[in-house]
Design a protein that fits this description.
- The chain has 427 residues and is of the alpha/beta class.
- The protein folds into two domains: 101 residues, Urease, subunit C, domain 1 (Roll), CATH 2.30.40; 310 residues, Alpha-Beta Barrel (TIM Barrel), CATH 3.20.20.140.
- The protein is built from 15 helices and 18 strands.
- The strands form four sheets. Strands 1, 2, 3, 4, 5, 16, 17 and 18 form an eight-stranded mixed β-sheet that branches. A four-stranded parallel β-sheet has the order 6-7-8-9, sandwiched between helices. Strands 10-13-14-15 form a four-stranded parallel β-sheet.
- Strand 13, helix 8 and strand 14 form a beta-alpha-beta unit.
- Helix 4 crosses helix 7 and helix 7 packs parallel to helix 8.
- The protein is globular.
- It starts with a strand and ends with a strand.
């Protein structure tokens, strides 16, 4: 099977490429990349003029809810949503039922994704057994089964000694810790960002320090152990400053930003009149925090963009704000928010944005993806940068329709998503 992608602007930051070229796929591999490809036996030609041809996007932070919460999402629906959002590879978090804290659950996720998945699925194993933060899980067994990282995502490891030991073990295995930073003594089950808006709305607030205290602790532990720690969903100015400082000391720390944390502020809770689709952990922050997150993306303090895709059933959101589940179904709006909020306003160049969605997360996870080099697996995302869209959550492929971006007018969308040489999504 030969597919020619013709006349697109090829953006491959890993190889320093940003120019109009043709790309040839043979079976599941990239066969050639040149200014003009003439080849016999082409089965399909994709006209990519005015399009961006990129390595397949990698989302290192998603929730597929499978096993145990398939009414929210499952591997089939979650990966279908991923390719609709332009992502060819996703790393799924372990807060399932049973928890992905052992080799058996990791093997189940891999086997089911091979049968039903439209995108590559990389399981993330739990740091601690049952996500309880008390006893380290069988990390070695999970790595052998296929886990690419460890995280207690959504639940912080409050005990510093447990986290120190976890970092040591993860370091011996050569895998990163994906770190949800939250001091539960400070957040105390708050519902939104602590500030003027929370006061006006009468909702219990979560101070930025609840995140920053644990970011500081864990970069110090990473400095002590030499482990690789990746800070998930950095959302405050203080967190960005701490990560920047740690990097200046040579600490092996990386970090991500989520689209909702650089696109909107906590004012959206008031504007949407307590709409629980705005409730997320960490919460939507202040305008100053948004400015700092964007600056962190621009100067490289924040290495990647990840969605923290967190689909929920309507029954989990259709309750009072305080009791609603945290999370935004974000994988289908991420690319449009990146282009609208970061590229269009000059925060990131096209190449910089693509790097944070491709080679940067692939490098952190240690996977052979994120490039268009001939001979590599043909995971490719083609983006229409000029498309205008109106977000309609009710039309999401994901089972989760919980998005605060309904009605937003955004720019750019995935046009074609190719996984291992096979078209898995076409607009």
């Amino acid at each position: 099977m030969k597919t020619l992608i013709a006349g697109g602007r090829v953006v491959d930051p890993a190889n320093g490429i940003d120019r109009v070229m043709d790309l040839l796929i043979e079976d599941d591999r990239i066969a050639a990349l040149a200014e003009k490809i003439e080849c016999s036996g082409i089965d399909r030609t994709i006209d990519a003029r005015k399009m961006l041809v990129c390595p397949g996007f990698v989302d290192m932070h998603v929730h597929l809810r499978d096993p145990g919460f398939e009414y929210k999402e499952d591997i089939a629906s979650g990966t279908a949503a991923a390719v609709a959002g332009g992502f060819t590879t996703v790393a799924c978090m372990p807060n399932t039922k049973p928890v992905a804290d052992n080799a058996t659950v990791v093997e189940y996720i891999i086997a089911k994704s091979r049968r039903e998945g439209k995108a590559n699925v990389l399981p993330v194993g739990a740091i601690t057994k049952g996500l309880k933060g008390e006893e380290i899980s069988e990390m070695g067994d999970m790595k052998s089964a296929g886990a690419v990282a460890f995280s207690d995502d959504g639940r912080p490891v409050m005990n510093a000694e447990v986290m120190r030991l976890a970092m040591q073990y993860a370091s011996m295995l050569g895998l990163p810790i994906l770190d949800h930073c939250e001091d539960l003594n400070l957040s105390q089950e708050g519902a939104m960002n602590l500030g003027a808006t929370s006061t006006v709305l009468g909702l219990k607030g979560i101070p930025g320090a609840a995140e920053e205290v644990q970011v500081a602790r864990d970069v110090l532990l990473a400095k002590l152990t030499g482990a690789r720690v990746h800070i998930c969903h950095a959302s405050t100015r203080g967190s960005v400053d701490i990560i920047r400082w740690a990097k200046s000391l040579g600490v092996r720390v990386t970090a991500e930003a989520c689209p909702h944390h650089f696109s909107v502020t906590d004012e959206l809770v008031r504007e949407l009149q307590y709409d629980t689709s705005t409730k997320v952990s960490p919460p939507l922050r202040s305008a100053d925090d948004v400015k700092a997150v964007k600056a962190g993306l621009k100067d490289g303090t924040l290495d990647t963009i990840a969605t923290d895709h967190a689909p929920h059933h309507k029954d989990d959101k259709d309750v009072e704000y305080t009791y609603a589940a945290n999370g935004i179904s974000g994988i289908e709006t991420a690319v449009s928010l990146v282009w609208t909020k970061l590229v269009s306003d000059g925060t990131l160049s096209v190449s910089e944005a693509v790097r944070k969605l491709t080679s940067a997360p692939a490098g952190i996870l240690g996977i052979d993806r994120g490039t268009l080099s001939p001979g590599k697996v043909a995971d490719i995302t083609i983006v229409d940068p000029e498309a205008d869209i109106i977000v309609k959550p009710e039309s999401f492929v994901s089972k989760g329709k919980n998005s605060p971006f309904g009605g937003f007018a955004l720019r750019a969308r995935p046009f074609v998503t190719i996984v291992s040489g096979k078209i898995q999504y076409e607009a």
